Batch of 4 targets.
Target 1
Amino acid sequence: MAEQRSPQPVSVSIGRRPEPVHTIAVYAFDGMAPFELGVVVEVFGLARPELAGLLATPWYGLKVCADQPGTPLNVVGGFSLTAHHGLDELAAADTVIVVAVPNTFSGEVSPALVAALRTAHERGARIVSICSGAFALAAAGLLDGKEATTHWRYADLLQQRYPKVRVNPEVLYVDGDDLLTSAGSAAGIDLCLHLVRRDHGAKVANTVARRFVVPPHRDGGQAQFIEAAVRPVEEEDDGVARSMQWALEHLSSPLTISLLARAAQMSDRSYLRHFTARNGTSPMRWVITQRIAASLPLLESLDGTVEEIATAVGFESAATYRHHFGRTMRTSPTAYRRTFGRASA
């Protein structure tokens, strides 16, 4: 008789379950302008090798969705695109972005899109609009009793058509936690970077902004001039750009108009004129914005007190820092740290 052997124990190695990918779904439609959709694709759909080692959770998964997936959509500019996902996948996403609506002035919003937005919101998704996309959120009833914004050109119309919405036409974007709205075109970049900052922290958002060649945070409202992005200075660059680069390298030191003008090799008066014409803001207002931006990763790191961080980025006192931080970020340094510091930790 053959010898019977006892079954040997089987060792099974179970790997760590991968982190779920946060899904971003963006709505596309026939006749749309491509810019805002391109912003969403650039921020959330692009491969990000520059973020290696910076991400605590995986980068986003992007889906472009349409009422009829697979059907070519005409795009302003004489070309077409095809969305491979439908509104059922949009309704199931973690974040839903509506970049615009067709026929803003006629008031037509796809009933299927309205239903998908309601479904997504009911299951806890984050709903975002860029430019006239706010009309879709309002049509779904999601903005009733809430503050929202849209392009200044459409603000009065949005308020008239949806009187329950508290329309703020002055700001670049409104963060209502699970409902976020932004002004037109370039403000969509601001809001998308804000989402990255909420999800992954200031350091990651700054890195994405640097690749985008835009400021990680713009201070002001829709009426402002757009701040020029600061880039590495080459020998042929003008004096204003050279002074901005120098200021970024000396943020912790006292900075004055005279010092900046000297770095630009200009008189104070000429420097003020050229800087404002180039950047749409004053030199010292720009310096304050850069100091606030530099303080964000320090707050997230949970190292150092607010007073120490204020000194590290060049503010003369913690009180001055808190004042400018509140004006720029619409919250306090402590509240920002409580929200994003814990997330980073």
Target 2
Amino acid sequence: MNEKPVSPHPLIAIIPVVVLIVFLGIVIALFGSDSLNGGSQIALLMGMSVCVCLSMAIYKVRWRTFEEQIKKTIGGVAATLLILLCVGMLSGSWMISGIVPTLIYYGIQIMSPQFFLISSCIICALVSLLSGSSWTTIATIGVALLGIGHALGVSEAWTAGAIISGAYFGDKMSPLSDTTILASSATGVDLFTHIRYMMYTTMPSFIIALIIFFIAGLGDAADTEIQVGEYTEGLSKTFNISLWTLLVPILTGVLIARSVPSLIVLFVSSLMAGIVALIFQPHILCEIAGNMNASAASLTRGLAITYYGSTAIDTGNASLNELVSTSGMAGMLNTIWLILCAMCFGASMVASRMIESITGVIIRFIRNRISLVSSTVGTGIFLNITTGDQYISIVLNADMYKEVYRKEGYETRLLSRTTEDAATVTSVLIPWNTCGMTQSTVLGVPTLTYLPYCFFNLLSPLMSIIVAALGWKIYQNHSSESAPSTLPASNNRS
């Protein structure tokens, strides 16, 4: 039987985090946007090695303890890794089949640069709300919107920020979202009670984000007719632009509406896109295969490369060539490598109880309602940074604060909401977190590039603290099980 490791001193526990931050700083300074291609992985493994060495040398933690936690943690993200591979398949097949080019072709003629950002944010919010998945939304409609924005001359950083803001709002408010379900179940709160209570912080954050995107869009009054004309001409000459290709997104939407698991949706959608590519874009598949004879062998080879490898199509326009290039499943391998390293670092911090030691210090400084919510927010962000995964952050945050909220007499729905405001939406802002890595890879925009423009994600944690300071709709639970509160009660009463 394994003995539970001794909780390390906080000053010892913080050392691996400091090492990680220092090495990440060096890596980013040396490699810039290429840091995710290997440098960040080394930084994570260095942080892990320091954690393991300190724990084994000072606190006599056995290696098997780390090994078991690593197996458990990586096993927990196995489905995520498969989803990433399917996202790579989907992004490649949707582009080569003509689905994304068709959306871009018509989208740039319909959408105005002035209203593009706010429209993109709202569209992604609706799709994510219906699908319950920010990842699926960004990998499908998000990629198309990025292409439309590129053609309209809108900054890719602003476009990515609008896409991510909308997608994470919808994900957060959807009863189909796995993170929403996880946050409510981890804290023991009814799902729809949790969603309704989140509206008090989520809606103001989203409205402010929309206002910012609207104002920013008004300044985008440049004449884009020439660029739009070049894009539409290049797309129409290269791809068979057809509304029939949009049957795939429609059928994908049907699968999502029927609550089919994300992994199955992405895989089936990729297969449907492959069939569309064979029907509408055989010349492109032959070009990819390097054999312009439309034989079964060349078509099969071209489709296989579309799914797993890199493609480069000559449209006659350099910027359009870059837009329609794909990387398939192979393009996700750096992300998967980074996720595995992040999971190893997070697992070592959990196994050694260093995470528990650090957060224990934070909890001791709680003095009132504002510091309670602020600490919950800070811990959620800290866990996203150190564990590299939003699911781990949600569960650990809920476990650490559940008893504190109960003793202080606050309803657990306050904890579930605060956890989502912190852990769920900030995960995409951290380059080595699974969400940050995935979205930067899918959109082709570095995390630190789009971070300043993800206004909803930046505002949500702050709004959680502001609402707590105002005491708006924050109730105390007066059950006999609750210990006398040491925190000031809200003016509101249930």
Target 3
Amino acid sequence: MKKILISVCLMMAVFLPLAAEGATVDSVLTSLTSRNVTTGNFIQEKYSAKLKKPLKSSGSYVFCRDGIVWQTLKPFKSSMTITQTSLIQVKADGSKTVIDGSANEVFRSVANTVSSLFSGTRTELEAVFKIDSFTADKGIWNMALTPKDATIASALKRVEIGGKLTGNEASLDSMTIAQSDTESTKYTLKDQNYKKELSDVEKALFK
């Protein structure tokens, strides 16, 4: 439960619209809230020393200020929606579970972390993460983070994100979350679409 919350919230936290090539950490964070809604498709690969080959899944996502929706289409259909107060899970058979996180200390810790990242200030980011590296050169940007917060650090060791820079716009194309030295999850993001508001169908996913 805790690892699910942290992984999804990190997805929210790092889905950054970036500034132009030569961007700084500050300009990246300043532009954090410039896009109201981002949708797209993903491929997830889970790596572990216990596995002979990575476990793969794919689907679509919705990212907005209300939260994030992670809809897995293959190998099995399911969806997970996380907001500031709840976690909504829908299984392949259509059964729905809503978990109230308002009284859960772990949930509130992660949700508050996401809120601080959405403030778009380096001070708030560095209260939770150490920025190990940031580069923006030749049309490519990359950032590496390690958690300071004990709740997050208990579930992951390092986060690496990267993407392309095109003029004044940028895309987040990859994210790797290392849970330990032997376990990691890589997300490849594509087909990004940016819009001002959620559709009626997308709004329903948050209820």
Target 4
Amino acid sequence: MSLEAVLRPILVIGGSIALTVVVVWLIDRALQRIDHRHPETPLWGLLRRCRIPLQALLAAALLLGSYDQTRIPVVVHHAAGIGQALTLVLIAATAWLLVRAAAAIVESSYTRYAASARDAARVRRVRTQVTLIQRVVTAAVIVVAAASMLLTFPQMRAVGTSVLASAGLVGIVAGIAAQSTLGNLFAGLQIAFGDMVRIGDTVVVDGQWGTVEEITLTFLSVRTWDERRITMPVSYFTSKPFENWSRGGAQMTGAVFFHLDHSAPVEKMRQHLHELLQESPEWDGRAWSLVVTDTTPSTIVVRALVTARDSDALWTVRCQVRERMIDWLRAEHAYALPRIATAPAPALRDGPEGGRQH
């Protein structure tokens, strides 16, 4: 074996790998410098995540264009298979690079918007939209890459005409079979751009109170107050009613009910409620009230209304008002707590025949 036969494969393969490493290193250094010069945007730092797919792309492209120059007998004998394999790697690396770059651009855009926006509800809406857009882009890139990889096989190109001829029938059958999946897909897009529900919204679904944690193209996850996760298809939110406590602004109004005796000092309770709210950092100061809303033969129903900046703060305020008001009533006005009136049983006496009578 001649020296040229040994050096040629080393130069071709090693040169391609070395050139790939050098080019990617230079690009990474350039992105790092730009990132230091422009700290206001995280785009350049996020684009550095594309190093590995970029290396795979450049290496596959260089080897695809030069592998036949190695003149190795095995390579020459299997040139078609090696070329096919490198083409598949090139397509996969390109798709991987596009997905990483799209994710970096979307994440950078959202981060800059969230840093400058003041409306929390609008930020959650944009977050929901960009998340679903990123998922749609990823799915589209994967589908196109898979189709491109299949079309590289001669057998697939040969049956292309038959596939196109039967596409109408297959589309009808697939549409019927995947009706539920397609419904969830379009429901996900409707939720994202119809602003029905957003990531971070507080919702009540089937009597369960929680926060929307994740929205995908097919399902939605709600995190309940006790850390459970409720997962349901997104079509649920377009076909059934649900409560969204965050829509139209995060500010909320809540009520606390007290069942008390008729002698309860309502005016003093009203004054004490105001004092409690002034000491509570969760109360937003917008409104409050305390009124008697109902009566029964033994009790009255007193309703206290409070406001808060969001659902979590409202829950805290309601619990504080309930606990501290009951403590105050028990300590200062115990007579106001509901009581059950009872009477002593009549005394029993002996009857004329030894039995007991009333």
